[in-house]
Write a structure and sequence with these properties.
Length: 250
């Protein structure tokens, strides 16, 4: 939450002065020994800290989730396993887990979704990465339209959805193999395109490297590229762009 937004909520009576003082009086970080949680990140950047779950010790993951939930009232975790979900659920029964995106999260009720982000995939095998992007963006308060399986091997599928894609403030293009989808979309829309290469493909795909090289060498304008399989990074950047698109002029 931004400084202006909090002050506006105080002005409207939605938040009390005491609550605002408590919010801005948070410690810069929570030192847990094995982790230093950035409790002021939302004040600085507009979004709270997110947990990368893969590789974390069970005890550490559980305590991190509990602390962030206590501080923020919601938590988003990426690359979580079913076992980690079962672990956290013992302490936070309301936690939700999506097997496809591997997103583990609990959200504040009644969260408003603003603007529009289009998340597109070349094929169905790219959907897990696309869902990581889409669910991340939704967690950060954005409306998302999913347009899946519109790769260039059947370009009529993409063209039949171009009006919906053009209506978005930002487009996330997720593709493996040769990664051409981002370039095609970049030539059709006036909005920023975030290209996400995936590790989907045969041997010469080299774990997503071929798609990455195609995307960063695109001749289409307005394309930015995140790392291989980095759906979370794409969803985060798309959220920042969409926020600019819906923000009222000051």
């Amino acid at each position: 939450m931004e400084l202006r937004e909090m002050l506006e909520r105080v002005k409207s009576g939605e938040v009390s002065v005491e609550e605002a003082i408590k919010y801005f009086g948070k410690k810069p970080f929570e030192d847990m020994g094995y982790a230093k949680l950035d409790t002021q990140r939302e004040i600085r950047s507009g979004y709270p800290e997110v947990v990368y779950c893969s590789g974390k010790a069970d005890e550490h993951l559980l305590k991190i989730f509990e602390t962030l939930y206590r501080e923020n009232g919601e938590v988003l975790g990426t690359r979580a396993s079913m076992e980690q979900y079962e672990l956290v659920r013992q302490s936070i029964p309301e936690i939700n887990y999506d097997k496809i995106s591997r997103i583990l999260k609990i959200e504040k009720p009644g969260k408003q979704q603003n603007g529009l982000i289009a998340v597109c995939t070349a094929g169905t095998a790219d959907i897990p990465v696309a869902e990581e992007a889409a669910r991340t963006a939704e967690y950060f308060g954005n409306r998302v339209e999913r347009i899946y399986d519109v790769g260039v091997s059947g370009i009529h599928r993409l063209l039949s959805n171009v009006d919906n894609i053009r209506a978005a403030n930002c487009v996330v293009a997720v593709a493996g193999m040769e990664g051409a989808l981002a370039s095609v979309i970049g030539g059709l829309v006036e909005r920023p395109v975030i290209a996400v290469p995936t590790s989907v493909g045969y041997g010469a795909n080299m774990g997503g490297l071929s798609a990455l090289l195609t995307m960063i060498n695109s001749c289409a304008n307005g394309i930015a590229v995140v790392n291989i399989d980095n759906g979370y990074g794409a969803g985060y950047i798309a959220s920042q762009i969409n926020r600019l698109g819906v923000r009222s002029p000051e």
